Amino acid sequence: MHDRLSEVLDEEVVGRVTQVGNAFFDVGLGRVCLDTLDPDHVGRLVERVERAFPGRVQKTDLLHLDDPGQPVRGWLLLTIEERQAPYVLQITGKPVAAYHEQCFMLEPELYGDLWGTLCHGLFRLVQHGELSLQAITAHDELLEEHRHHQDVVVRHAVDGYDVDPRPRVEAMVEAVRRAWRLIPWPLRQGIQPTSQIPHDRIADHDRVLRRTLLLAVDLCEGEVAYQYVHKHNPLEEYDQVLGWMTEVYVAMRESYPPPHFAAALARASSVERFVTAFPGFRRVVGGVLEPDAEEAK
Prior knowledge:
By secondary structure, the chain is an alpha+beta fold. It has helices spanning 2-9, 39-52, 94-101, 114-127, 133-159, 166-181, 185-188, 238-255, 271-277, 293-296, and strands spanning 14-20, 23-34, 57-62, 75-80, 87-93, 104-107, 110-112, 202-204, 211-218, 223-231, 261-267. Strands 1, 2, 3, 4, 5, 8, 9, 10 and 11 form a 9-stranded mixed beta sheet that branches. A two-stranded antiparallel sheet has the order 6-7. A hairpin with a 4-residue loop joins strand 9 and strand 10. Helix 3 (94-101) runs antiparallel to helix 5 (133-159) and helix 5 packs antiparallel against helix 6 (166-181). The longest helix is centred in the middle third of the chain and has 27 residues, at 133-159. The protein is globular, with a radius of gyration of 20 Å. The model has no long low-confidence stretch (mean pLDDT 93).
């Protein structure tokens, strides 16, 4: 599905690959990270997808390019009804993805990002009236700061500026941690603090002779623990290659386990391209939190 959409859009769709039994599938989420978040170009991409999948596409427009008051901006989601499960195509700009999905530590062994912790965590709890006044006050301050930073990032994406939003995320980390601690434990349990790729949703995998990569990253140090990019060719046995790459991926996850490491088997033209599309593979900002000595005993 990733490769089919790449051909439909004439834009690279980056996404993960998985094995179920003896068959290979694409994980049901792909992403296009545009150099310039031009709304006219985004509209043309949507039209291409709708023509390729008539009657099967549902659009969720979170671009809000002219509305700085929105808590989430800069994204357009297309849900495509598929045989196994819905496939979600996300279209955004490079700095927007980097701002929303840059990882940081909420507490030792627990990672978060702004998309999960704020946009789909704290902000939603406040909307549902489930937090204390102290937590709501912290929310209001955070929301104002987030809107400011997000507005700058979205404007950069629209103008095509390749800027690094990580300092903006880092500036918010301590306030996010304080707000996190104010959320009652039972409510925290219902929050997924990092953006999650739905591994339980699968789509057809196209045996196109492009590139499949393996990647493992130490999130604390920002160092690549393992990487390999394979350019498929017509002389190889395609399933055999994906088979041994899956075996390496499984071993890689055992050698470099979460949460301190992130690992992927994915379709992308390069490691840089994959990390641009999924910035959760970059080094954490805001410092590394170590367990207290008493807690570690």
